[in-house]
Amino acid sequence: MTATTTPPLVKRLTGIGWVRSNLFPNVWSSILTILLLPVLLYSGYRAGLFLLVNAEWEAVERNLTLFMQGTFPRDQQWRLVAQLPLFALALGAGLGTASSSAQDRAIEAGLPHERTSPIGIVRRFWSVIGFVLVLLYFASTANPWFVVLGSVLAFLLGFQIRGLPARFRLYGWSLMSLLLVAGFQVVSGTTGRAWLVTAIVVGIGAWTLTGSERIVPGWRTWALKTGAVIVTSVLVFLLYSVITDPGVGWDKWSGLHLTLWVSALAIILSFPFGLIMALARRSGLPALRLLATTYIELIRGVPLIALLFMGQYVALFFLPAGSSLSSISRAIAVFTLFTAAYVAEIVRGGLQSLPPGQTEAGQALGLTPPSVIRLIVLPQALRAVIPAMVGQFISLFKDTSLLSILAIFEFFNVRSLVHGQPDFRVVAHAETLVFVAVGYWAVAFAMSRESQRLEGRLRVGAA
How far apart are CA 160 and CA 89, in angstroms? Predict the structure, then answer.
């Protein structure tokens, strides 16, 4: 009979114990700590002296709205105010659904799982929350406080979806997608092809949520799902033909609002395109492999700033006469194509790191080549390249500042509007730079922390 060993208790370090363990564990580390400590203390003192005493933050305080939304029409600001609670509600529904789904999978696998809580979310996104608090500190009226409070309440309301039974879990993802589209269109409007985007989202939800193999077997399930997609798409089209709101086109967006949208859209679009390019470059079809390789090497060999200029001027020769494609649309296309080339190489590196036995094992199980790639190869390859992938997306977010060379007033270029004012032409340049830098850092750091959390959950780098 074997004796059961009890795992040793993890002893939590006190403040002095943490200092001794991390700063003075041995002689060389102690010497390095002693040498660097005065430098760090002096640097912190000078930074605090500038931020709290010497800095003139009036330029930021008086132009806070300009930094956030730039030259967005002032009579249409209500659209941005309405967009924030909708996005907060969508984010809450998405995180609540993801938390419940992860918990269910852990229970089925017999693994421990810590349920996500609002406090845990604050710890994960503390840098962004801190930047929001800085914005509220500079706010001269109570209106931003009400907007933030309403968004927090909307997030908490959406997060309660985690309490729904598992059979309603798919409704959470459909609700999140619909709210994201609604949040976008409350600003961009409902005219043109806006109905098509909503119809696609609603159609996917109808296809997923309609019918069941246990209730209606065989071809009847497909007929029922197809009919649900057609009916919902027609209803969406009729609804949008009645609700005609021109909105504000994103050629009039600017400030931090524009920076976040350009980054989000370019990331969302570049990932699947880069994934396809990576698979095409490893394809057994020579023509497809040649096209993918030519595209990747050509894009990676040209500076991003040159591609941005080409997108603004050279691309006009390839567009139909009188094309209404805005400069921001062309910039998003350039960012997408540029990032997709790097994503393709990152994914290709992950694909090459897998041993051939993985593919052979899938084939031995009778899986088709697409199923082998989808179920065996890609999950392992993407898991291995998470750090590099997120690093590329962080670079994309920061590279949006290059839009300033195209006279687009994104978050960084708003400074030119601020310092074009008579009161701030020769003062507060350092202060506005620090403010903008903190904004970029808050979002980039949150992305980095989420990457680390995902790496920990997937045990990236573990043997």
Answer: 10
Question: Domain 55-72+252-463 adopts which CATH fold?
Answer: MetI-like fold (1.10.3720)
pTM for the full predicted model: 0.88
At residue 450, the 3 state secondary structure works out as helix
Own/partner contacts of 306-312, CB < 8 Å, gap of 24 or more, are: 307/334, 307/337, 307/338, 308/334, 308/402, 308/403, 308/405, 308/406, 309/405, 309/406, 310/334, 312/406
What is the residue whose two structure tokens read 């679009």? 269
Looking at residue 463, what is its pLDDT? 47
Q: How far apart are the first and last CA of the chain?
A: 31
> Token pair of 437, please?
């830098």
Q: How many CB atoms lie within 10 A of CB 417?
A: 17
78, 248 Cβ separation under 8 angstroms:
no
- Distance separating alpha carbons of residues 436 and 263, to the nearest angstrom: 16
Structure tokens at 89: 């509600």
Annotated domain spans of the chain: 22-54, 55-72+252-463
CA dist 348 and 404 (Å) reads: 32
The tokens for 243 are 């609700």
Query: What are 207-244's pLDDT values in tens digits?
Result: 877 765 454 456 677 888 888 889 999 999 999 888 88
Radius of gyration, alpha carbons of the chain: 26
